[in-house]
Amino acid sequence: ASAWRFTTISAFILTVAGLLGTAVVFIFSRDYMKGRFQATFELTNMRFEMWEAALVQWHMMPWIGTGAHTFLIYGRMFRPFGGHQHDPILAHNDYVQMLAEYGLIGFVLLVVFVVLHIGSGWDTVKEISRTRLKNALERRSTSMALCVAGLCAISVILAHSVVDFNMHIPGTALIMAALLGMLATPMKSEAPGKPGFLARAGWAVPPVAAAILLFYDATPRFQSEWHAEKARVALREGDFSAAKKHARRGLETRQDNPELHFHIAEAYLFGGARIPIPVVQRGYYLKAIEQFELGMELNEWDSNRWLNMGQAFDGLGRFEEAAEAYDRAIELDPYRTQVHSIVAMHYEHQQEWEKALASYERSRAVGRGASAGGERIRIVRQILREQKKAEK
């Protein structure tokens, strides 16, 4: 028996070591994976700055939170001066994002929910060990295997959620739901005095009712969301005609999705930039602004859309309206290099060189001395020197 135990433990250790070694070789043989691995363990990792922004957001409404997916707004607004320049779509920590968006009440409910399910799974493991396996000739149990595997998988997801956004990935969230459901399924033997099936089934009524209500609310939105995602992908691929087609089909079913208007607007904006004919380009920019304004009526909190709207106004020579759009973008994302760089180009178009220089320098300052705009700063300074010489 001791020899068998030694062989089993040795095989386990060698297997784990082999898997870890393979993972290390795989990660460091690919530049993208190597960069992500190193970024995870940097002391100046941008995750810490995202978490800081999420905690500032939480203090706005500590009990009930600011609402689902609002870190997209406040993560930009509360990024630290000189901090990360990536777009903080998600906080890269499910716990702090949950706290920020759903408040202390939502966070506590989540913790209780998960703990109850894990406790149910652990009770099942103890029950099976005490009853089915204690005196069995062959100590095997499919229920035990599923329960232990479920507990391990949930532990991995919960641990990784400290540094990533697992529960914001639909596939991972679905797997987590299946695992929690498996742990909640009674696998213990019936004991005298315990509630029967009907009594236990009563506990299922509230979640089933909530699921039905969610399904009822989500079903009418499905087609609209489907076309919105198709439009987003088409935009990313540069297929502006397909983007407009899908967005318009989405608007046929629902008109309350601002993303559909924004996708049409961006298709006109980016498509117009490719057309060298001024008259046609002007028509594209006018249609883009029309769609931006419709989208802003539904959601005015996206700084990227204000930047794009400002660029459309610039393309039409409507600089005052462009400046108003850029001011709103700065208000929503004050410490992002790209925002100030675009504003600097706006002033360049009007040959307001001092304002352009100030915006370029601001761009470098908020981005921890970012190199973006360095060449433009040199050119603008040279223009200003020449102007001063001409004035003398």
Secondary structural class: mainly alpha
Which runs of at least 5 residues are low in confidence (pLDDT < 50)? Answer: none
Biggest sheet features:
none
Number of helices: 18
User: What is the mean predicted local confidence, pLDDT?
Assistant: 84
Computed CA radius of gyration, to the nearest angstrom = 28 Å
Order of helices and strands: HHHHHHHHHHHHHHHHHH
Shape: elongated
The proportion of strand residues reads under 5%
N/C terminus separation: 98 Å
Helix proportion range: over 70%
Total number of strands? 0
Topology:
Blueprint: H1 2-28, H2 31-40, H3 46-60, H4 71-77, H5 94-130, H6 142-160, H7 170-184, H8 197-202, H9 205-218, H10 222-236, H11 240-253, H12 258-273, H13 278-298, H14 303-316, H15 319-332, H16 337-349, H17 353-366, H18 374-391
Outline of this structure?
This protein has helices at residues 2-28, 31-40, 46-60, 71-77, 94-130, 142-160, 170-184, 197-202, 205-218, 222-236, 240-253, 258-273, 278-298, 303-316, 319-332, 337-349, 353-366, 374-391.
